[in-house]
Specification:
With 115 residues, the chain is mostly helical. The chain has a single domain, classed as Rossmann fold (3-Layer(aba) Sandwich), CATH 3.40.50.2300. The chain is built from five helices and three strands.
Length: 115
């Protein structure tokens, strides 16, 4: 299964891309050059044009605190790098196939993804 990707080089650029393109899913790294990925996540979840877009946080900062902060800010899943190659694809597929996939509550309740 292939996907069309739009890449942003910074948090602010990513927010603008999400507002303009309204993607089916966002994969968000927390290590961004301009603002924190957690701040980007919070801004996307507070914006009426992007609030319903599922977001996978994809980070090398593998701590329980980061997972908790990301889920509390509205992430639908948190993946820690590195992980098995199939984990990201499986997570994307699961989120996109969920009935009403724009609702993050059901996904977060079922998500406990480890690499």
């Amino acid at each position: 299964m292939g996907y069309e990707a739009i890449e942003a080089q910074s948090g602010r650029e990513g927010i603008e891309c999400a507002r303009n393109a309204h993607p089916n899913l966002i994969i968000l790294d927390l290590g961004l050059p301009d603002i924190s990925g957690l701040e980007v996540l919070a801004l996307l979840k507070q914006d009426s044009t992007t609030v319903g877009i599922p977001i996978i946080v994809y980070t090398a900062w593998a701590t329980h605190t980061i997972r908790t902060k990301a889920l509390n800010a509205g992430a639908d899943a948190v993946l820690f790098k590195p992980h098995r190659p199939t984990v990201l694809n499986e997570t994307i597929k699961t989120i996109l196939e969920l009935p009403g996939s724009t609702s993050d509550v059901n996904w977060r309740a079922r998500t406990n993804v480890h690499g």
